[in-house]
Amino acid sequence: MSEVIVVFITTSNGEEATRLADMLVGSRLAACVQILPEIESVYRWKGQVQREAEVLLLVKSTRDRFDELERQVRAIHSYETPEILAVEATAISEPYRKWLEESTLLAKAKG
Fold first, then answer.
1. Which of 39, 40, 87, 94 is at 20 to 30 A from 9, Cα to Cα?
2. Which of 71, 62, 66 lies closest to 105, judged by CA?
3. Domain boundaries along the sequence of the chain
4. What value does the mean pLDDT take over residues 8-30?
5. What CATH topology corresponds to 4-108?
């Protein structure tokens, strides 16, 4: 049984968010990606406090897929240092866990 994670990724706009979501689900690096439009982020970057509109992705995946997920996101993300932050799901319904694991297994990609 794989550890289920939720990965937070922010993007600069909806187009980039959609491109990342399609890539992650299409390549089985994620079972599901939710796109939350128009959040406001306040952060420190290069010594200055920044305030920007962003789009947030909530990516449902497994721990064993994280390294490849991070590599693929970094390869096409527009940010110099993209937010790619995973948290463990401490409680999850078994039917959802089963679906998520099946959706991220490469061996099942034929179907």
1. 94
2. 62
3. 4-108
4. 98
5. Alpha-Beta Plaits (3.30.70)
